[in-house]
């Protein structure tokens, strides 16, 4: 298990997003040069200053939409990029059902454009942001990389389509080295409280919703179903700390050339946590019981999604270091210090 630890110039798309920003911090702290790009569709420019404050190093940043191939081409012409980490995408499952073309355009179209520009400039090292959601309803947990793929919504279909594009590209041209990382449920925040999850509008995901209940922005958590075949009846997920996730991306970059072609690796803890257990952990973090109401199941939800993280450990030497209690403590610290998110600074 070798890895190229030399410092490199890494282009991070979606650099001001939740996972992108934490990955920029991790790469900068490890000595890499980082060029970030984002269109701020679902993130705040205020994140840039915070990345710099945490890493004590500035990242180069260009505001652009990855679908703008001319702007991407210009960037690659001006900068000596060695590798790319591609986060930029739309990621709300429900929204993808309502506006599929926007998702195919942003997630598949943009990835195709990026690959064309990378190839034209001889940059063929790529870490791609994928998701365990491509499995859809699974027959059993834990989920390994060879589990059946049955995407059930446009969002997860865009991720699966992109993985197929990347696999076909690597077969056609073995000069490419690509790893797709399939995340389970990214949560938490940077321990400094400067970076965290700040979704626009009403949070779709449970952790930011709980955090907003804790800080008083939401009245109560709707628990979507308590009649699942799980220990307490509520949904079980494999929550992974965003700082662990960021570290996994840097390791994946270092191991890209261990194998030829396209590789898929799960990033999860292997531990399942129910909604009620998450609520209890967050209550412990914020020091008070949080109001909740049991509601009907949410359409499209499955009972349990838990990763088999064996390959990440064997191929990357990666294991999650943070437990759910730490995830809740860090998420609460960010929410407490930023009650209305990044635009809290007198927008
Ligand atoms: C987790 C659990 C809900 C909200 C999604 C995407 C996945 C990835 C992560 C991008 C479930 C329950 C939720 C609420 C609740 N995104 N819940 N009340 O659905 O596992 O995964 O986000 O890659 O692709 O599918 O995450 O946080 O929405 O739900 O009870 O207000 O919390 O039923 O059991 P999910 P989630």
From TrEMBL:
Domain NAD-dependent epimerase/dehydratase: 10-268
Keyword list, A-Z: Carbohydrate metabolism, Galactose metabolism, Isomerase, NAD
Organism domain of life: Bacteria
Enzyme class: isomerase
Pathway as given in its UniProt record: Carbohydrate metabolism; galactose metabolism
Reaction equations catalysed: UDP-alpha-D-glucose = UDP-alpha-D-galactose
Record-linked Pfam families: Epimerase (PF01370)
EC numbers on record: 5.1.3.2
Required cofactor names: NAD(+)
MF (Gene Ontology): UDP-glucose 4-epimerase activity
Subunit annotation: Homodimer.
Family under the similarity heading: Belongs to the NAD(P)-dependent epimerase/dehydratase family.
Protein name: UDP-glucose 4-epimerase
Organism: Frankia umida
Gene name, Swiss-Prot/TrEMBL: galE
